[in-house]
Amino acid sequence: xxxxxxxxxxxxxxxxxxxxxxxxxGPYVMGEFEIDIAMTRELLALVKPEYREGFAVPGE
Length: 60
Known about the structure:
This protein is mainly β and 60 residues long.
């Protein structure tokens, strides 16, 4: 699954978290993988225009 994430107290999302189940990216004993992807200007440009106001680039 992919979930939007944001900084605590913020009204906008500043990135995404990708969760990958065991066996997909590694052995079962390593458990689930959680990959954090920070929002960038380039990534924000790929978000549908009607949803862009809900996202922000960290530090800007």
